[in-house]
Every structure is written in C-alpha cells, then in structure tokens.
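Worked problem 6 (solution included).
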Amino acid sequence: MDWRLTPGLLLRAYATGLFPMAESAGDPELHWVDPSRRGIMPIGGFHISRSLRRRILSGQFEVTFDTAFSQVVALCADRPETWINNTITELYNALFERGYGHSQEVWEDGKLVGGVYGVALGAAFFGESMFSKSTDASKVALAYLMDRLHQTGFELFDTQFITPHLRSLGGIEIDRQEYLARLEEAVRKPADIAAYPGPVRAQDVIQRSGQTS
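Solution. The predicted structure is:
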C-alpha cells in the first residue's frame, strides 16, 4: 500500500490518530499504527535537569530550526534498527517541502550532532524521531522545540510512545480515547510554528520551561 501513500493522505491519517512505520529500513512496506496508550509531552511541562540546564547554558551548541531537515531524518535512520525506510524518508521530505515537516537541529563545531523532526498540523505537533551524536544533544533539541511550540500556540505534542528517556523529560502516557479528544481539538486550532519570537536566548528557554530540578 505504501506506493499509494501520499503526503495528503499521511496528513489525514495524523488527524485521525494514525501514523506509519516500517518493520525495518530494508522493508518497503508500511503499516499504520494506532497505540492503545499514547505518549505525549505536555506543552509547557518539559523537564530540564540541572545537568541539562548547564549544557544549554554552556554555549557548546548552536541550535537552528528547519535548516537541515533531510539530514536530521537521515541521521535518525542511521542506526542498527530503525522503522524509517526509503518511503518514509521520501514522504517526510515531501511534507517538509509543503511546510508541514519541521526539524530542530543542534550543531557542535559546525557538525550536526543532534536533532528531532516531526509534523505540525493545526496546533498539534507529531514528534517522529530524534538522534544524538554528542552528550545531551537530542535533549537540547527537544528543549528548544518544546519552547517553540509553547510560544507559538501549540496544544499537543504527540511522542507516539513513552520511553524512560521521554518520561524523565516530562513525558506522560494517556489512553487512546483521551488522546483522540485532545487531537480533535488541537488540529482544528491555528498555530504558526514559524512565528517563534527571536532572538532566542538559552536562559529564556530554561526559564519558560517551568520545570527544572
């Protein structure tokens, strides 16, 4: 079915709570996933630990947005086991070209060392994957992305599943019925992820998170 899967159909699937995955990078087929329990990251509830706070303030990283989308997707797929196949790569690059796909990038000494990518639809953001080639790089990317979503009117950040890593950053798990209710409300509301007020200072990202320890 994946050869008929278009960017438009993919957006409609997101609006109903579905998302696609492949069994592996080498498997050309895709299947729809609809978990009974859904991971989300409450907007405004991102948790920044003392060590992450020091990392963000250190000046070690440069953080950008939507400057290396295809590279972020490729690096997210560059691991021994992945659900990101060629079809998914092509589809999400097409969504980026249409203004729905977005990436938050983290650079160190001019090299892309961390990032996260996903899809924005209404006031909902669907996080797809993230990677880290340097300590805390993916956490820094997520911190900046969460701040961007908070500041630009988003109401739902879907992480699909919950992991110990995401839970430590403030992620929670809700059942399908609650997720669908939140999703229906969020996709109907306008939000402009590009309207992030700048310049953005590291201390502002930390202060606005409201969740530090």
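Discussion: Residues 164 and 171 are 9 Å apart (CA to CA).
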